[in-house]
Amino acid sequence: MKRDGHIHTPFCPHGSTDSIEKYVEKAIASGFKEITFTEHAPLPENFVDPTPDKDSGMNSAYLMDYFKQLKRVKEQYQSEIKINIGLEVDYIVGYEHETKQFLNEVGPLMDDAILSVHFLNFQDEYVCIDFSQEVYLQFANKVGGILPMYKLYYETVKKSIKADLGLYKPKRIGHPTLIHKFQHAHDEQIDDAADISELLKMMQTGHYELDFNSAGLSKPYCKEPYPPYPFVKQAIDLQIPVIFGSDAHTAADLHQHYDLLQDKITF
Question: Could you tell me the pTM of the whole model?
């Protein structure tokens, strides 16, 4: 069954204004039977977004309208496609309590959700690791190099897997190799196979799903999905549910590279 489990909406402050209906109509036309809208959840109120436009998460004032619109669309198209209402929730070190409280409030309104790491903390400073090539390389220099940055990223993802975020903690781990987004912006060859394998084993033990995210194939400094193919095969061997996610922020990017990934791996 064709399913896309990672889709954004016009509620994304750094996305497009394409209507929710436009995404749904394209999904139906493309033969998809199930989709999940996973807009970036509002960040904790006491967390300062390090990006210039402070647009990493949805404005909390729009959250209930987001759920209301998705519920309407879900009912409108129920005979044609299964639509899940969800969020992509950020795991931020030091904000576990706030995140748990948020999930306790909105969890009953969701069918599905993703837990992702976009922010890394070093010496009490937070950085959005996937914001730009420049931020990525500057942060690497600050933490002592590319390898230490990779290590910090994977340690943060491990913390997200182990964190107690309550009954409504998302069951799917989002793009767990996002640190690869700018891997061709530096000339170092980083062997992180052991770190990725450890993450997968932790996910297996914790009964998590894997977000097989195709967006990296469209990133000029990445050129591969998150995670790369060998680790998706490993996840399948570990019987971890693998859920394709296009991570589309525009209707044009919906289901991007699905056929290519499906040809390489059966998921």
Answer: 0.97
